[in-house]
């Protein structure tokens, strides 16, 4: 039996969200069936 050590790093750092984006309007549903 052999042991395999795996090291990984993230490809890109996650974006830092400075100010939350507040909107009064939002999408309640999407229909992707129509081409």
Characterise the protein shown here.
- It is a single chain.
- With 35 residues, the protein is low in regular secondary structure.
- It has no helices and no strands.
- The relative contact order is 0.09.
Please sum up the structure shown.
With 35 residues, the protein is mostly loops.
Key terms:
35 residues; little secondary structure; 0% helix
Give Rg in angstroms.
Answer: 21 Å
Mean pLDDT: 76
The SS-based structural class is little secondary structure
- Tally the helices: 0
Beta-strand portion reads: under 5%
Globular, elongated, flat, extended or rod-shaped: what is the shape?
Answer: elongated
What's the SSE blueprint?
Blueprint: no helix or strand
């Amino acid at each position: 039996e052999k042991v395999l050590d795996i090291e990984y790093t993230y490809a890109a750092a996650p974006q830092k969200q400075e100010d939350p984006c507040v909107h009064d309007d939002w999408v309640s549903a999407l229909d992707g069936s129509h081409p």
